[in-house]
Amino acid sequence: MIEKINRLKEAFCNAKSDRERDAIDIQMKELIDSDSEKFAEAMAVSAKETAERAARLAIRQKMKDIIPAVSLTHIAKTYFNKTDAWLYQRINGNIVNGKPASFSPEEMETMKFALSDLSNKLNSLSASL
Please, which residues have CB within 8 angstroms of residue 97's CB and are 6 or more apart in sequence? Predict the structure, then answer.
């Protein structure tokens, strides 16, 4: 059921006309009628996946302006004791071991600290010039 819903969601997003969207709407209603309970469960899973994907994209989007200006290799090694590839995987939400890589809550706090620490160092340097 979830695969059908995800295919229909993607088709709806890529639809070029109201006619195509109406046809997809009909297919969704048919899925609801076939098993409303399974449909509701699958929609909940799909919504959660969409929210998680949006959160990953938001991180990358928020960081897009600073990525060229800071060394992610330095951040990865200094603050996480990891490789830059590991950090990029989480920033970009790459598929690792069959699922999108993301920061754990603790890793997100470390990332916040790293950015704040770098900011403080840059501000201190700027003030001393």
Answer: none
Residue 78 tokens, joined:
């200094």
Whole-angstrom CA distances from 98 to 90, 95, 101 are 14, 6, 9
Reduced 3-state DSSP string for 16-74: CCHHHHHHHHHHHHHHHHHCHHHHHHHHHHHHHHHHHHHHHHHHHHHHCCCCCCCCHHH
Residues 6+ apart with CB under 8 A from 72: 84, 87, 88, 91
Q: Which residues pair with 100 in a beta bridge?
A: 95
The residues near 27 (Cβ < 8 Å, ≥ 6 apart) are: 8
Question: pTM, whole model, 2 decimals?
Answer: 0.63
Angle at 28 between CA 22 and CA 31, to 5 degrees: 150
What are residue 31's phi and psi, to 5 degrees?
A: -65, -40
List, for residues 8-44, the tens digit of each pLDDT value. 988 988 889 999 999 999 999 998 999 889 999 988 9
